Amino acid sequence: MHRVSLDKALTGSVIARTVYSHDGVLLLSEGMRLTEEHKRKLSHNGVSDLFIEQPEYTGLTVSDIVRQEVLTDVKAQVKDIMAMPSLKAGIDAKRVADLIELLLDDILTSGEILSHLNGLRSIDENTYTFSHSVNVAVYAMVTGIGMDMKREALKELGTGAIMHDVGKMMVDGNILQKPGGLTQLEFEEVKKHTIFGYELLQKIEGMGNAAAQIALSHHERMDGSGYPRGMSGIEIPLASRIVAVADVYDALTSDRVYRVKEDTHKVLDYIANQAGSHFDRMTAEAFVRQIAHYPVGTAVVLLSGSKGLVSRQNRNLPHRPCVRVVIDADGVMLKRHQELDLSQADGNRIAAIWDI
Ligand SMILES: [Fe+2]
After folding, report:
1. pLDDT bracket for residue 121 (50, 70, 90)
2. Rounded to the nearest 5 degrees, what angle is found at the Cα of 330, between the Cα atoms of 334 and 303?
3. Distance, CA 164 to ligand 1 centroid (Å)?
4. How confident is residue 87, by pLDDT bands cut at 50, 70 and 90?
């Protein structure tokens, strides 16, 4: 199978993975052939890319760290929990804990290396927040696992991560939805989501203080340039330092109302470069180790000049996966594809993304 952007997907292509909407509604089933009508429907529902079958990609399987139906279900439930009527009634801490258990069980049993979770373009900022919250919880818990955190600590981290932006529900929607830059005054309003979230979560019975602390301090930076309090270094709780990395990673790899997404490997480079100033060094290193830099199915150009598709991940070297070479260095299309393990190939590595 192969991941393509919706605008590049040809009609008649066979769908390799079932596509769901933000709300968990089935949009298109695996095995169906793509029509113009389907493309309109997918676009309307914010689907920006999908998996299709193609001969070069036969045998490539994309395994999820969290099953797609679980992720979709949790996102729909978070939307329900964070919607204004239920927020006013108070958050059911037990329900949130159950969602974290669901995600954590999948993560711990899959044994997969994490590939990025986004397939949906957010239609508006609220939809983005629900989906983003769940992605951040997964990224944060996977990072925590890479830092040898125990199950109880992972659950606390996941709970804070999934609720980290709940305060945004109390910020003026017109400011959050505004495309383009914010005025200083508007930015001051957005910043308040940290305090609103803290105040809300602190009052919820059974939520735990750690979650409230994460909501409060996930925008703090190691060098003290963050908000709301300008904390620095280890003054910032470890769980908040982890959520800070997960938050920025998901934001930059998602399409937003005002910006298109960046490539996974570019964002990982950015995170590595910001280690020590914006991000906690150990956390940034753990994150970069735990995530696939080039997800399976990514088309790449190698330093040697040959071209191919990422076919498998190497757990300890996520930037050096296995590549199925389909065009050799002389530009000749190979009749028999060659599997190349970049962890074993001295001097050869991925040079660029191949725009096919
Ligand atoms: Fe935030």
Report:
1. low
2. 100
3. 6
4. confident
Who has greater pLDDT, 240 or 1?
Answer: 240
8 Å CB contact between 321 and 292: yes
CA of 86 to the centre of ligand 1 (A): 20
Tokens of 196: 């609103």
CA 25 / ligand 1 centre spacing (Å): 27
Taking the domain 2-57, which CATH number applies?
A: 3.90.105.10
The 10s digit of each residue's pLDDT in 95-115 is 999 999 999 999 988 766 677
What is the architecture of the domain spanning 68-290? Answer: Orthogonal Bundle (1.10)
C-alpha 230 – ligand 1 centre gap (Å) = 15
d(CA 165, ligand 1 centre) in Å? 5
Mean pLDDT for the stretch of residues 186-194? 96
> What are φ and ψ of residue 162, in 5° steps?
-70, -20
Name, in order, each residue with C-beta under 8 angstroms of 169's C-beta and a sequence gap of 6 or more: 82, 84, 87, 126, 129
- For residue 219, how far is its CA from the centre of ligand 1 (angstroms)? 6
DSSP output for 89-102: H---HHHHHHHHHH
- Listed by start position, the domains of the chain span 2-57, 68-290, 299-353
pLDDT for the residue numbered 118? 60
Residue 345 is predicted with a pLDDT of 79
Where is 2: in which H helix or E strand?
A: strand 2-5
Predicted structure pTM score: 0.84
* DSSP conformation class of 319: T
How far apart are the CA of 340 and the centre of ligand 1, in A? 41
